[in-house]
């Protein structure tokens, strides 16, 4: 019997309507469109507005679109995994909330927190359940409401992030496509450069932590940049070599959208021309767990069955990784 692999058989995304432009940001903090475009490559990002709305609501919208597009119903889903660093609440898992809001009742669900590498870790985890032959339909979600942890008085971080959600459906196949290989890595000592200081068990929320703005993202940009630029490229090149892939064999690099300079450096190290690199950072910024499925959704019409994709990400943790996917369908 031929080997079962996990195929991505559909993708959808949801981006909130509100557009926060560089122009508006430059009225909030001392920054400019020119600085943000040159140093990061972002023109605008989406912000989820509305009382009582959170990460699960964006994910639910994305999944609803996917159900409609693929004509599948909630009862068919076996497992839901949601990558997020901005869960609706500390517990229960946002994936549980998503299941409830969608009427997914024949499944189990959990969240994975791996910051900007969240979608990669989640896709790899989900693929094991498919390859084992145990499950037939898994929703792999990447969703973050980054605006809930961004300090809009801090010019070092507020231009970078946006809100959004993406989802892919994973199903078994034996046609040789799907997730072929991956490399995932962690270096927990990197956590000092990128984290949220309070709100966890070490430093629970208090008046003092709120006053000290410790519930927002803390990032030492240059230190993170240095690691991101080398690790994302290293792991992608390692994966290419392991699978005897030359640059001409690759149809697309699907990079996490954190900084255009990091994306460009990764593409160059892999020997790829710019037209083979998926980029939408200028429209949506860094949606953390959302960037990769949102990119796949944005470029879906250009993907063909058999295309070799390298998906790559680096993020807080530090976490990083790369996945080799042979695309499973023509749009
Ligand atoms: O996705 C998760 C992983 N995260 C990342 O991959 C982020 C990695 N890091 C980065 O992308 C970049 O380091 C940043 C975009 C965060 C910052 O860019 P940078 O080129 O590393 O700038 P910098 O922090 O070294 O700051 C350079 C200068 C500083 O001014 P001085 O000290 O040279 O006078 C900053 O104060 O730019 C200043 N600056 C700004 N100026 C205008 C910082 N932020 C801004 C701003 N507008 N928004």
How would you summarize what this structure contains?
The protein has 331 residues and is an alpha/beta fold. The protein contains ten helices and 13 strands.
Write the layout of secondary structure elements.
Elements: E1 5-14, E2 18-21, H1 22-28, H2 33-39, E3 44-47, H3 55-70, E4 79-83, H4 94-102, E5 108-112, H5 118-131, E6 138-145, E7 163-173, E8 178-186, E9 194-196, H6 207-211, E10 217-219, H7 221-242, E11 252-255, H8 260-269, H9 281-284, H10 291-299, E12 308-315, E13 319-326
Parallel strand pairs: 4-5, 4-6, 11-12
Antiparallel strand pairs: 1-7, 2-3, 6-7, 8-13, 9-10, 12-13
The chain binds oxa(dethia)-CoA.
Oxa(dethia)-CoA (UT7) binds near residues 31, 35, 39 and 228.
CATH superfamily of the largest domain: Thiolase/Chalcone synthase
- What structural class do helix, strand and pairing data support? alpha/beta
CATH architectural grouping of the largest domain:
3-Layer(aba) Sandwich
User: Unreliable segments (pLDDT under 50, ≥5 consecutive)?
Assistant: none
Distance, first to last CA:
28 Å
């Amino acid at each position: 019997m031929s080997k079962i692999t996990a195929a991505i058989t559909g993708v959808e995304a949801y981006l909130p309507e509100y557009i926060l432009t560089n122009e508006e940001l430059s009225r909030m903090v001392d920054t400019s469109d020119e600085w943000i475009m040159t140093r990061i490559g972002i023109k605008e990002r989406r912000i989820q507005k509305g009382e009582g709305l959170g990460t699960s609501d964006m994910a639910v919208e994305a999944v609803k679109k996917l159900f409609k597009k693929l004509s599948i119903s909630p009862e068919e889903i076996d497992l839901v995994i949601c990558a997020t660093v901005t869960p609706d609440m500390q517990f229960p898992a946002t994936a549980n909330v998503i299941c409830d809001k969608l009427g997914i009742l024949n499944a189990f669900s959990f969240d994975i927190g791996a910051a900007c590498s969240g979608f990669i870790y989640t896709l790899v985890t989900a693929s094991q359940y498919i390859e084992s032959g145990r499950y037939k339909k898994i929703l792999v979600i990447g969703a973050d409401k980054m605006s809930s942890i961004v300090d809009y008085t801090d010019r070092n971080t507020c231009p970078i992030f946006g809100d959004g959600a993406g989802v892919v459906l994973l199903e078994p196949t034996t046609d040789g496509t799907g997730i072929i290989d991956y490399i995932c890595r962690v270096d927990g000592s990197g956590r000092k450069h990128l984290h949220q200081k309070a709100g966890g068990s070490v430093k629970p929320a208090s008046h003092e932590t709120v006053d000290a703005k410790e519930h927002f993202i803390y990032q030492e940009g240059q230190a993170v940049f240095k690691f991101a630029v080398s690790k994302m490229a290293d792991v992608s090149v390692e994966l290419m070599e392991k699978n005897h892939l030359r640059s001409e064999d690759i149809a697309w690099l699907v990079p996490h959208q954190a900084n255009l300079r990091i994306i460009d450096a990764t593409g160059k190290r892999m020997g790829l021309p710019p037209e083979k690199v998926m980029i939408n950072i200028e429209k949506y910024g860094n949606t953390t767990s959302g960037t990769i499925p949102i990119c796949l959704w944005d470029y879906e019409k250009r993907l063909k069955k058999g295309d070799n994709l390298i998906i790559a990400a680096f993020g807080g943790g530090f976490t990083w990784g790369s996945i080799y996917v042979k695309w499973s369908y023509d749009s």
